[in-house]
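Hey team,

Sharing the Serine acetyltransferase run so nobody has to redo it. Sequence (202 residues) first:
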Amino acid sequence: MLKNIIEDLDIYAYRKGWPKWSVLFIPIFYWTTWPIISYRFSHWVHYRVNILFFRQVLKCFSFMSQRFFETFTSVEISEKAFIGKGIFIAHYGSIVISERTRIGDYVSLHQGVTLGGAGRGEDYGDPVLGDRVYIGAGAKVVGKVNLGSDIMIGCNSVVTKNFPDSTTLGGVPAKILNYDGSVGFIHYRNQKNHNLDLCKIQ
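Structure output:
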């Protein structure tokens, strides 16, 4: 939990050009980190705390903290979701991540984004996103959708089907616009090594 929180906060520090130790002060300046920290704690309690008494006490605390931050920031992240390290929320407001959603590392979200369950019967499901996915303001990814890594989703797009790696999506319903993907839009401290790997592949 703590390692993921540090990596989450370091995204903000890196984007400002600050050293990694400055993560201690990031929550003071960036309130968008509060629901992320609350999610990490609640997820840890839900899946890792096995002693019944402590589990119940901590679940009450995590429930209240989640509701508080949801009210304050309008960011709702289910503690049952699985989110990789380095998630970045650019602006809080009307963001929803459902309980069965799975998100890779270094994903960037903007205001108005919904990652939610949809469908009926056996077709019901929640999104699965790869690493380094950029999701523009107002975009919706709903249903049993599998998205690859390095994908760019344009503002107000609605994604309801699978798409491969390194694609740029846009429209309602979303379709592939080009194959540039999210390279250059996702920023984190070790991204230079990742970009070098991409160059070798190409």
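The longest strand covers residues 175-178.

Ping me if you want the raw files.
A.
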